[in-house]
Amino acid sequence: MASPPPIEFDRVSLAFDGRTLLRDFSLRLAPGEKVVLAGPSGSGKSSLLACLLGFLRPAAGQIAIQGEPLTPKSIWHLRRALALVQQEPDIGEQTAEAWIREPFTFRANEALRDRLDRLPGLLPRLRLDPALLRRKGTDLSGGEKQRIALVAALLLDRPVLLLDEPASALDPDSRQAVYDCLAGLSGQTLLMVSHDTGPALDFADRTVRLAPPEVPHGRA
Prior knowledge:
Layout: E1 7-16, E2 19-29, E3 34-38, H1 45-52, E4 60-65, E5 68-69, H2 75-78, E6 82-85, H3 96-101, H4 119-125, H5 142-156, E7 160-164, H6 172-183, E8 189-193, E9 206-209
Parallel strand pairs: 3-8, 3-9, 6-7, 7-8
Antiparallel strand pairs: 1-2, 1-4, 4-5
């Protein structure tokens, strides 16, 4: 029996303040597929990730994760299948290492603690100096925070990895290191929002381009 799609949007519509961002958007990801959402600002890319996490409800349509419809009740256990890397991670005053380790102190992740053994090997792959683990989040650059957030997400090894502009604050070499790391993933399904175009995203199986948002009726 075939596995259900890890992510499925079925005729989803999003609207804000009378403006339609997306209308009847459908997308199905296959298990292990890497998909990039591309499009201009305001086209709904990040909003789709917010819908998957239950932070935003679509105006119409249905979303399913691993074959189960996303509802206000089901989101609480479906989130365990997801790991998110935000564009601007908030690490706060704690050290980078403490922030990475914190999710593994939760009861739901107790069985995953041995995955922290992979931390030393992940850092050089993302061009990160191990010494920065001792630095507070407030002392890290935006690019360092993005890569630390990616390390934390990879260590959790969730079935679905959601990435919202994970390399926007990086120099070209560090950005390429991130994409090379993502290219090497196997088994995980990846949905990434990105403004990058061209060969940099060749690691993805496909790119889905969203149209510009509709202009509200009567406005130029």
